[in-house]
Amino acid sequence: MKTVNIKGKEYVEVNERLIHFRANYPKHGLLTEVIKIDPDWVVIKASIFDENNREVANGIAYEKSDSSFINKTSYVENCETSAWGRALGNFGIGITGAVASAEEVQNAIKNQTKKEPPKSPEQVMADYEMLCSSKGMTESDVLDFENAICNSKEESNFDVLRPTVVEKFNAIYSWWMEKRLT
After folding, report:
1. Is residue 152 in a domain?
2. Is residue 182 part of a domain?
3. Can you tell me the distance from the alpha carbon of 103 to that of 85, in angstroms, rounded to the nearest whole number?
4. Enclosing domain of residue 130
5. Per-residue pLDDT averaged across 72-91, rounded?
6. From the CA atom positions of the chain, what is the Rg in Å?
């Protein structure tokens, strides 16, 4: 079966799995069942049955209507194809190291690379202040910490002022807790 290389791994497309299945298992059947459908998403189960009408493998897929350009009009069809690919993979067809089909992997990679827009400095400060106040820290506690760090001769301490909001908060909170205990 032909494979597609995605990020250094070989994956078999669903159409290749189907061709192999139809050619090598002519007495088996592939049945699709819509488990749940909504205007925004769908869940579909595909099952493979042997010549005695026993289910021998299945696969479930989920698709959102807004996850890709094609899904805007064809999310149900894409979900069915994914369910077929998973069922065929679970049956043992087209597995080269993963059950996922090439299409599923490409879609997952595309959705993982969607990034939220960067926060404005005002949003970052609001998040930072909310974290501090949620632990009962006052502005003067934070200023005391930052002054202690800035006046320190140790370069590694100065780096605490540069990290992300959460990392900076954790450093300040740890320092504050130690200060309270002494």
Report:
1. yes
2. no
3. 9
4. 121-177
5. 91
6. 27
- And the tokens for 53? 């009408």
- Which run of H or of E encompasses 105? helix 102-112
Q: List Cα–Cα distances, 6 to 59, 135, 170, in angstroms.
A: 22, 45, 38
State mean pLDDT over 159-172: 57
What value does the mean pLDDT take over residues 162-174? 61
- Beta carbons of 149 and 161 less than 8 angstroms apart: yes
Mean pLDDT of 143-160: 55
* Per-residue tokens: 105: 């992997």
The DSSP code sequence of 111-180 is HHT--PPPPPHHHHHHHHHHHHHHTT--HHHHHHHHHHHHT-S-HHHHGGGSS-HHHHHHHHHHHHHHHH
Residue with tokens 């493979």: 48
What is the average pLDDT across 114-136?
65
Q: Which of 57, 77, 112 is the last residue of a domain?
A: 112
Q: How far apart are CA 93 and CA 96, in angstroms?
A: 9
The per-residue pLDDT for 9 is: 75
Among candidate residues 91, 112, 133, the one where a domain is terminated: 112
Global pTM value: 0.55
Are 14 and 102 found together in one domain? yes
